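Sanity check record (used in CI):
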Amino acid sequence: MHQYLFPRSFKTNYLEADYGDGLYIYDKAGKKYLDGCSGALISNLGHRNKDIIAAVEKQFAKLEFAHPSRWRTDIAEEAAAAVAETAPGDLDNVWFVSGGSEAVETALKLARQYYVERDGEGSGKHVTIGRWNSYHGSTIGTMAVAGSMARRRMFLPLFKESPKIPSTYCYRCHFCKRYPQCGLLCAHALEEMIQIIGPQYISSFIAEPIVGSTAGAVVPPDEYWPMLREICDRYDILLIADEVMTGCGRTGKNFCVDHWNVVPDIIATAKGMAAGYMPTGGIIARNHLIEAIKNGSGAFMHGHTYNGNPMSAAAVAAVFRYMKEHKVVENAAKMGELLGAGLKKIGEGSAIIGEVRGKGLMWGFEVVKDKASKEPFEKKLAAANVVTRACIEEGLIIYPSSGQITGTGGDNFMIGPPLVITEPQVKELLEKLKAGIEKAENAIAK
Ligand code: PMP
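Expected output for Aminotransferase class III:
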């Protein structure tokens, strides 16, 4: 069903995309838009990158598909090796899928199978703990472990429900505490939940290193992920990092967990992996998980037709080659410093921005009615959308979300330009954003 016949939202005025060029997308009337959020933090190399297109075309001319149950291909091996090389610790094993939701589903199944292989079919370890204020995908399984109520409510009861703990969200702390006096109650909440359920029933805990689409780039305190790692180790539970949005260089490191030197048991990733040039995702798993399957049943009880398909693999291999050759992750870290400083300045100067937070090239804004009390605007105003529309008029695309609808936060939007952004383009983005926010401020005041 075409989006125009069955649009995701009947309330949205869709822009008519014509073509892309670097950081920009042009509409059919020829208006130029700076892609300030890389779609949804996907187009890490910008649009129409000639090297990636050439690599994909080359593969297309050679072999478009070979079923993964029978064939291995050099291109899939090359792509997997390139991804594994960037992952920390012994995260050496890559399994390709078609997108982020499939990657998370794959991670959840691998976690369960690991314990069955290790402990036998009687293993009770099947529960995955998730967090409120999180997004892990649109399929039923990923919805069960995620906490965005707006996205879940209509589909309850889910086939499988999972227990959840609060996310980190220092600006609107679930425990009404302040960091660091809080002692990271949000991390201790995991231990508490494990004790309530019983570690013998729990296979894994899943979280986004930086909460993305539900709350606008919420960065946890530095101690948080090392604490999660320690708790999971203590109770023999696998730690899954959902790096669908934060992975592949987005935050100025290869993977976001690298900021805290944490090695999760499984990383689920997608978006930046093929940077929008092919529908791709994947998991990266530590060696002991794969060893358990090798020494047990011998096969991961999972599979999709498009696992490791040559076209996506060609895009992944080319994206990772390009990132290495052009030092794209280093650029993301450098430009991130510049962008972050400029965004914070804009936030300080605006009456409706309560907080600006982020890492690398993943930044979130909290839109508020009152900066002192943090009171959000009335829900029906959809303040983040007001800012988005004003920015579109200025020729800048940003990524809005509303934690208000989920009942877990305020109105937010994200800035996440392609990782190949240059210094003049950072300036251009800042100017456009400042103008958009001022315009939104005036529109709201009227
Ligand atoms: N996990 C996270 C953290 C995401 O941000 C997303 C997509 N926004 C997904 C999973 C789902 O990915 P996809 O849309 O490719 O299925």
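The chain has a mean pLDDT of 94. If this sentence no longer matches the regenerated tokens, the check is flagged for review.
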